[in-house]
Amino acid sequence: MKESPRTPLEIEIPKGYRRYKLKGIDREIIAKKGGPTASQIKTKASYKELRNNQKEFGVASMMAKTLRQSLSTGMSEICETYVSGKLTAQFRNLAKMEEGKTGTRPLFLSKHGHLLNGFEFNSKAPYEKIFGAKYFVKPGSQRGQVILHFPAFIPEKTFKSPKGATNFKITARLIALSDYQFDQKAGGYKPVNKDLHGKFGTYDSAMLPLLKIPTEPMTGMISIDNRIIPEGTGLFLVMAVSFYRMENGKFVHLCKESGMQIQKVL
């Protein structure tokens, strides 16, 4: 199997080969036709390791999906094309931090989730590069609360904003994702805190102009369900800076030039 650096129109596919795309790879893959059937993968002993890998990837894929579904519409618009596959791979790597057989290892987000700190949802506009203001993230009085504080800053000097942008908005979501452990009796993975998985709290700034004058200081608290979040749960603080252009009396989201990252996993 090999990658093709050329465009589809330039590629001549040899007899017995096929072309296809994979998430996370921006070029086509050329490979021989054929391969194991779905039935063979499910039953043959030689594919046991593949089945075990699929179990871990299945949980990681579900975690990535839950995280993305917990984002606001505006935040989701910032995500680049292959972010789902990249995020799944990051979650899958957490299983490797624990001992045990592949396909039974736990995925402890509460223990290893910090390894996803700094994950970028739009690699073309890294969050820390387009937003240079100092801000503070502090824990609240109980687990499941976060306090954000933005001292006054001058937007025009602070942001690396796209051409034509007139306004900006800061959004943050604190998302709870449960740890997952393998249940030997059930033969599959189960969440430690099912009722909290995918719950979130939100902070939204006002729509602010990109000017040369300082903003007012901004402070806000994010809380999930107004309750103490138990152990066995990773708290993902996702922060985004969105740029907008005023057009015909409406704000147009410049999502491709906006940035978002997993700022911290608590």
From TrEMBL:
Domain of life where this protein originates: Bacteria
Protein name per its UniProtKB record: Uncharacterized protein
Origin species: Ekhidna lutea
